[in-house]
UniProtKB/TrEMBL annotation:
GO terms for biological process: chaperone-mediated protein complex assembly. It comes from Eolophus roseicapilla (Galah cockatoo). This is BBS10 protein. Coiled coil: none annotated. The lineage of its organism: Eukaryota, Metazoa, Chordata, Craniata, Vertebrata. InterPro entries: BBS10 (IPR042619), GroEL-like_apical_dom_sf (IPR027409). PANTHER family: BARDET-BIEDL SYNDROME 10 PROTEIN (PTHR14667). It comes from the Eukaryota. Signal peptide: none annotated.
Amino acid sequence: FAELHAAVAGLPVSSSRILPGLVLRRDFATYCPAGGELRAVLVTEPLRPALSAPGVEFVVDSEGQYQASLQWITRRTEALMKHLQSSNIKLLLSNVKQEEVVIYYAKLYGISVVECLSSEEMALICEITGVSPYAPFGDNMHGEISETTVATFCQPLLLGSKRCAHIGFTSVCTFQPHCLILCGPVDSVNEQHAAALQEAFIMLQQLFKTVEQ
């Protein structure tokens, strides 16, 4: 329920509404309006490649070697983002913060990015779409990207003073995600309404289970 509702203080209760899709309480790191099919990938690791594996020391002997290493990272990052573009990827959802070079090339190649998603948000998106996170640095970085989903829409949303990402997903299950926007004069009122609604949904869920049995 926490991922399926958002609270907005300072507005009348009558402004509450239900929106299709998910409202991710993160602003776009970069937003590139796009038409047509909006293919999306999920990632759980930085897309800027590391110079060495975790726990392995990388020794640089000179300034020239250091600059060459940075250039290699930049070229590899650009190649990855270009590969995403050529695979018709227009939306990148990440549970980690991406480096500025990733955001730069994402914007350059027309890919919107939402980063720092919670593990709960990522798990919900995986459940809705049926896809797993994309691992770009395997044996074949330029191979076909099979773990993609289609977003029916992707747009910024302003809730009070907070900018969010409003995204609709093609669901592989009977559950069609919607988000409840709870409005109230103060946070405490919204918290009370959210708790009451959650209890009501739990009761309905238990009732339906009883009927099915």
